[in-house]
Amino acid sequence: MAQELADTLNLAEIRFIPSANPPHKAVPTVSAQQRAEMVQLAIADNPLFKLDTRELSRQGASYTIDTLISLREELGENVSLCLIMGSDAFSKLDSWHRWDELLNYCHIVLVQRPNSQTQAKLSDQLTVFLTDHYTENSDDLAEKSAGYIHMQQITAQEISATKIREMLTTGKSTKYLVPDKVLTYIRQQHLYSLAQIA
To answer: Where in the sequence is the domain holding 48, given as residue range(s)?
Structure first.
C-alpha cells in the first residue's frame, strides 16, 4: 500500500512512525522498540521509506497531533504532509485528541480496507469535517501544505496486522505476508508466541 501511494501521489518519502503508547489500543504485547526494529527490517531496501522514531522518545500517550506539530517544526510550513489512514480509523477520528486540529498540519489520505463489506457510519461532526475538506483531485495535495482530505483507491491486498499476529500465535505460516528478515527477527526474539500470550 505504501509503495502504491508513493507512486500514485508522487510522494517524496513515506515515514513509518511506530506508536509508543497508543491511547486507543490495548498495550501491545511487543515493545515499541521491537516494533520499530521490525519496521526498519521491513523497509530497509526501499529508499522512499524511512523509519521515524520520534514517538518512542516522547513521554506519555502517543498523540498524532503532537507528532504532526513536531514534523512541522522539523520540515517547515511549506512542505506538503499527508497522514495516511484507513477509512475504518477515520470513522473514529472524532475520538482522537485534538482531532479537529489535524488538518492545520497535514492532509489526510484515506484508503479503504480491501474487501470491506460495510462502510462505518460517520458521526455528524465527521461528516461535516469530511465534506468541508474533501477533494477528489490528488494534485491539490501538492498545491497546499495541509488542509485537504482525499480518498485514494488502492489495489486490494487482504493483509492485516491482526490476522498476521493470529496466524503467528497459532503456528500458521505467514510466508509472503511478512518480509523474511522480519520473520527471522520474530523467531529470534520469540515474539507473538502462545507462551508469551498465555
So the answer is: 2-157
The CATH number linked to 143 is 3.40.50.620
- Give the closest residue to 106 by CA, choosing from 145, 73, 71: 145
Beta strands in 91-133 (DSSP E): 107-111
Amino acid at 57: S
Q: What is the pLDDT of residues 165-197, one digit of tens each?
A: 888 888 888 888 889 999 999 889 888 874 443
Pair (125, 143) in one structural domain: yes
Neighbouring C-alpha atoms within 13 Å toward the C-beta of 153: 3
Distance (Å) of CA 87 to CA 29, 93, 110: 25, 10, 5
Count other C-beta atoms under 10 Å from residue 69's C-beta: 15
pLDDT tens digits for range 98-128: 999 999 999 999 998 665 554 668 999 999 9
Is the distance from CB of 191 to CB of 31 less than 8 angstroms? Answer: no
